[in-house]
Amino acid sequence: MTEKKLRLGAAGLGRAFSLMLPTLVLDPRITIVAGADPRTEARALFEKDIGGRSYASVEELCADPEIDAVYISTPHQFHAANALAAAAHGKHILCEKPMALSAAECLEMIEAARKAKVHLLVGHSHSYDGPVQQARAMIETGDFGEVRMLHALAGGA
What we know:
Blueprint: E1 6-11, H1 15-26, E2 30-36, H2 40-50, E3 53-55, H3 58-63, E4 69-72, H4 79-88, E5 92-95, H5 103-116, E6 120-122, H6 130-141
Parallel strand pairs: 1-2, 1-4, 2-3, 4-5, 5-6
């Protein structure tokens, strides 16, 4: 039996998206189905390289019924509005950091996600990365004794 893949839409096709793209593409649980960016050239490159649909606005992206979750990698000042749009359309949200520009915006994002019953994940959470999961499994066996300290320096792959 095959697990259903998470159908991801990318809001913002700039640097943050480019840095995250290898991880997203290599994850067998994810398929990138659409992207949004106001720049025509960014959308054309996305369509050519990824093969997904593209939209000029995040609102259009969020309205796409084939998207389960939205990865928000737009400029910081748009994070709150983008997250609210995603929640309003019932999409789970993965938002780059900073979450928003004010505590009030953050609280509004949290409330919108709760109301829509969607998940809101902010920033670089490496909890689900393969090496972190492997370390957790090793720790849980107890074979190495009690954990006293963990240190990760440039822990990303």
